[in-house]
Amino acid sequence: MSDPGNGVEGAERSLGQLVASATAEMSALVHDEIALAKAELRQDAKRGAIGGAAFAVAGALALFALPTLSFAAAYGIHNLGLGLAWSFLIVGGAFLLIAAVLVLIAVAKFKKVKPPEKSIASAKQTAAVLGNVKPHPRAVTDGPSAVARSTA
Which of 70, 62, 75 is nearest to 95 (CA)? Predict the structure, then answer.
């Protein structure tokens, strides 16, 4: 099999050339994967921003509608024959009751939240494996420190 880049047969290439070629191809692959991930994240972030803005507008509209609906409910109860103060008190009490139920649901859900045990165990296992790795022994060569010792 020949390499179209330099026309040298694969069997004739030296080990250094093969390693350099593999390193370059792996680097290109990693860069391409990173570019793809960035493009996907950019698209997802844009969708998320639009969705978040839609939720914010919906929340603002619901917040603006709440007093109007509260007054409508209170005046509707008042039209049934109850006093106006009692009508507003009933509507306010209903809101407090709904809020209390939502707080109880939230507390129950928060109590069920647990740490990511599988991720923690995996991270500990990886750390243990990496802690047992020993560096490859390197041959001692006459480097700059040997030159410095000989001149001293």
Answer: 70
Residue 74 neighbours by CB distance under 10 Å: 20
Tokens representing 127? 């750390």
Helix (H, G, I), strand (E, B) or coil at 111: helix
What type of residue is 131?
G
Question: Which helix (H) or strand (E) element contains residue 51?
Answer: helix 15-79
Closest among 75, 113, 71, 79 to 95, alpha carbons compared: 71
Instruction: Give the Cα separation of 85 and 97 in Å (integer).
Output: 18
| The residue count for the chain | 152
Is-contact 3 21, C-beta < 8 A? yes
pLDDT tens string 89-100: 999 999 999 999
Q: What is the pLDDT of residue 75?
A: 96
Nearest to 75 by CA among 61, 66, 65, 85: 85
- The model's pLDDT over 14-40, given as tens digits with 9 standing for 90+, comes to 888 888 888 888 888 888 888 888 888
Q: Output the pTM of the full model.
A: 0.47
At residue 139's C-alpha, the angle toward residues 133 and 141, to 5°, is: 140
Query: Quick check: 86 and 92 in contact, CB under 8 A?
Result: no
